[in-house]
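Researcher: Go.
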Amino acid sequence: MSDTETDELERVRTGITGLDEMLLGGLIRGSIAAIVGSYGTGKTTFGLQFIWEGLCQGETAIYISLEESEESIVRYMRKRGWDPGPYQSSFIVLKLDPTNFNLSINSIRNELPSLIRKFSATRLVFDPISLFEDLFESDAERRYEMFRFVELLRDERCTMVMTSETDRDNPYSSRHNLIEYLADTVILLRHIHPNQRFRAKALEVVKMRRSRHSLETRMYEIGDDRIEVLS
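Model: Structure:
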């Protein structure tokens, strides 16, 4: 892809200082991004800041959680100064129960696309997709259902962010080593230990289809009201 073609792609800003620079302006509109990281790397915060940036830009957004309740998500946002109160007509938080297999599968497969259309959502976060992947018993079934799920969402032209836990034995791979092949953009978050007395967080853009991107590994900080990727 030429530089001109890359520049012409419509971008969606994440609102995360430094990350949008690494993405040459933001995620490609209508694409699917995976944020992969171990516990404590801030995956949920990345997803919520992406949502908040969209609300501030007048967009509509859906946040789907398989871990936290709706009240917990809203409380966390307000703690960071991202009050969703004024955006009730353009923001939905949904909590799905990952222990109820049939309910979760049917809700995601059958109801989510129609909800996106009905709500005219332009941003969607699924946190974490790894719990959805856990619902399937075999690798073959998981691969089939995830490919089907992703293709359904691509038809909606909604920019989507999915978070995923890393594999227990490989900090550079998602839990099931699948979502990074389905997503257009993959952002890897990890803890680094420059020395025994100091621990920091670093990220890299592992891939970005149809676009150039930064090949750097950068440290980042999670502040009281925002994430900042350092230069």
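Model: The helical segments are 3-8, 19-22, 43-56, 70-79, 101-119, 129-133, 139-154, 179-182.
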